[in-house]
Amino acid sequence: MTAITALVFALVGFGLLIPGVWLVLLGGSWFHLLAGTAILLTAVLILRRSAAAVWLYGLVIVGALVWAVREVGFDWWQLIPRGGVFVLLGLWLYLPLMRRRLVTSSGGVAPGLPLALPLLAAVGTALWSWTADEAGHRGRLPTEVVNPQPDLGPTSGPEDWHQYGRTQYGQRYSPLDQITTRNVGELVEVWQYRTGDVKLPQDVTETTYQVTPLKVGDRLFICTPHNLAIALDAATGAEHWRFDANSGLNPDRQHQTCRGVTYWRDPAREVGASCAERVYMPTADARLIALDAANGEVCTFFAENGTLHLEHGMPYTPAGFYYSTSPPVAVGGRVIIGGAVNDNFSIRSQSGVIRAFDANSGALLWNWDSGNPDTTAPIDWTNGETYTANSPNSWSVFSVDEERGLVFIPLGNQVPDQLGMGRSAAVEAHSSSVVALDVVTGAKRWVFQTVHHDLWDMDVPAQPVLLDLTIGGESVPALVQPTKQGDIYVLNRETGEPLLPVTEEPAPQEGGLPEETLAATQPTSALSFKPAALRERDMWGLTVFDQLACRIQFHRLSYDGRYTPPSVGGTIVHPGNFGTFNWGSVAVDPERQVMFGMPTYLPFEVRLVPRSEIPPPGADTKASEQGLNRNEGAPYGVMMGPFLGPLQVPCSAPPWGYVAGADLRTGEIAWMHRNGTVRDMTPLPLPLKVGVPGIGGPIVTKGGVAFLAATVDNELRAYDLTTGEQLWQQRLPAGGQSTPMTYMLDGRQLVVMVAGGHGSVGTDPGDYVIAYALPE
To answer: Which region holds residue 307: left if phi is over 0, alpha if psi is between -120 and 50, else beta?
Structure first.
């Protein structure tokens, strides 16, 4: 027993000492080297049966406790990995069966007090830290109704949800108030529908279900990852019709998803006439199909027998490289649509052109190409005219201010995302920006750039949110733009000028490629959820050993805060291209002029790979934004993925995800709370509220309730908008990486959630549409 105990202590000592030396040589903490040395000496004393082992190891526990508290305070999730191994060894050494084997110089049994007191201090600190959540902060959003009759955007009534964000303003706000903070805990499931469209073995990794249903009259309209359009009965979930676009499978597609369909009522057609009400569905093989909302039949007068082929005019047309994952907007008889371009496949990529088509004939009315931004007259693709290759694209959802004749476009960047050499002046001006275009002509009214010379894939991912803000006693037309880097820009939507201050901050200038240029400064909004710069003490792991490995990796990689340039040696990008905010955007209450969002913090590791070191593609290669991105035609490819430790858990300390509330008039963040559990991340289904990453979007209601799923645990939750307190949760049968919606039918408010999982975050796939309501 003594020999085995000494061996265990020796292994732990060497496990800390050897990498601890490496860490010190890299300029890191001395603790692991010193602790490893002390534990090795303890092992020697145990082998000699010396009671001094108890005294020495008691000092190790005290030292570890002081070190841990100095580094992270009383954060339980960071204290336990630091001290767990030391406490377990101490408990073993404290046992009478062990102490009886250790003797003092006078022949007595080793005393227990030198270990008991440090162990009590360590356990007491752990218990105290369990009750003291140091992450985020508590507070209250203002409850004052600033605008009792806000502009919600064109809509038929409070009972419906006609557009992706309910209206073309993208507010994700419902004026329904039957469900309130007092009764939301009574919600029960009232119906469930399964689409039958499930993830297939041959699907790409990014096969995800992200649809937000539309509700028009007594119907719901959805699409599925493999491009089925389906109409459901809003009262029962019964299927009315379905249409299969037969978009097939292609391993070169980076995404296999559909975020939604677009509803449009043709004012020139009589009510009840064929295709008077339409559903437009984008497909994974670059088509846009017009369907009769009444029966799902194709509206054959649109484009080519009901189908618009979006590859027309593209300079390159390899199958699977271009498609639309988000619903277009329909306004003024026009359907305006962008498209997703595969990230980091090849510099010979399709254009990111934004196009407006006649909603009836499908004729091209205008095209705005960020690589040629001053010309919007329709090209003649039948005579070989093409758009600019590889110009910044928009894969997300647009917003529309019909009264002002503006459509707002969140833009991405040019492929390769991490290489900025050779970009044109037009590309540099429009990458990672939000652009306002004239609905009628496509002419640019203004552009606001959120990242200069983007090298981090910080494309603007979220639908812009439109509302009128009361500032200085006056109502100002505003646009709220969430970004991946954590800034939320509040702009005047008529001019693009900031309503909340935007400052230019110095950006890192060291560590990138010698042939790369770097922006000297980067913009930051007064309303910002940007993460604090990582430090060695922020490294995390399940044990002190894998945390030590993350500390070493932290010092080996290039990192100088947000916007550290990518490098051949490897760079930490924080936040990673998963984003602080992504396509789920934020939800706003236009009466109280506050927002609810889900900031996520997950650093990525990015490593540029010289062309000569990139192997040829394998026969089983599938498209993915993680792993090796080949960047064909560029001098470098890129390896990227989450910054993980040896046990494949994040190297950065939790929380990785929050819910948060902010006042849009002042930019004040009123509260932030860790959100979500590790129940579906670990072999044991433990609902420990760590605060986990998420991708998806929230909604808010006049009842003061916010609804959100999105996290990597399969839960739908309701929150008090004012305080962020969680009020209700419901277990989902699959990952909830979509945005919920709500509507009224026959005097009853329902909340609908689509649960189908997300390939990148690894949540359970499924095909569920579920409705909840208060008991009748």
So the answer is: beta
* Three-state secondary-structure class, residue 399: strand
Active site (annotated) includes residue 663: no
Q: Are 575 and 484 in contact (CB under 8 A)?
A: yes
Q: Which of 761, 755, 454, 736 is nearest to 624 (CA)?
A: 761
Q: Please give the structure tokens belonging to residue 134.
A: 């140091």
The residue annotated as part of the active site, out of 75, 160, 417, 457, is 457
d(CA 403, CA 262): 20
DSSP letter at 655 equals P
Q: How far apart are CA 72 and CA 74, in angstroms?
A: 6
- For the record, the structure tokens of 562 come out as 């947000």
Token pair, residue 303, equals 């484009």
Q: What is the DSSP letter of 518?
A: -
pTM comes to 0.95
DSSP code per residue over 365-423: EEEEBTTBTT--SPP-GGGT----TT-----S--EEETTTTEEEEE---PSSTT--TT-
Give the pLDDT confidence of 194-244 residue by residue, as tens digits: 999 999 999 988 899 999 999 999 999 999 999 999 999 999 999 999 999
Which strands make up the sheet holding 433-438, listed edge to edge? Answer: 399-401, 406-410, 433-438, 444-449
Residues 6+ apart with CB under 8 A from 619: none
**Are 108 and 52 a contacting pair, CB within 8 Å?**
no
Give pLDDT tens digits for 31-79. 999 999 999 999 999 999 998 989 999 999 999 999 999 999 999 999 9
* Coil, helix or strand at residue 293: coil
What's the CA gap between 451 and 460, in Å, rounded?
Answer: 9
- 317 to each of 322, 349, 546, 653, how far by Cα in Å? 8, 8, 46, 43
* Coil/strand/helix, residue 532: coil
Residue bearing tokens 């162990």: 119
CB 108 within 8 A of CB 49: no
- Residue 481: both structure tokens together: 């733009």
Among 615, 607, 610, 639, smallest CA distance to 626 is for 639
Q: Which residues contact 128 (CB under 8 A, 6 or more apart)?
A: 74
Q: Of 721, 725, 776, nearest to 749 (Cα)?
A: 776
| Bridge partner residues of 474 (DSSP) | 471
Cβ(718)–Cβ(706) below 8 Å: yes
Whether the Cβ atoms of residue 514 and residue 465 lie closer than 8 Å to each other: no
Q: How far apart are CA 205 and CA 216, in angstroms?
A: 33
Helix 52-72 with 31-47: angle, nearest 10 deg:
160
State whether residue 97 is helix, strand or coil: helix
Beta pairing, strands 705-708 & 699-701: antiparallel
Collapsed DSSP state (helix, strand, coil) of residue 733? coil
Intra-chain end-to-end CA distance of the chain, in Å:
66
Around 308, how many Cα atoms within 13 Å sit in the side-chain half-sphere? 30
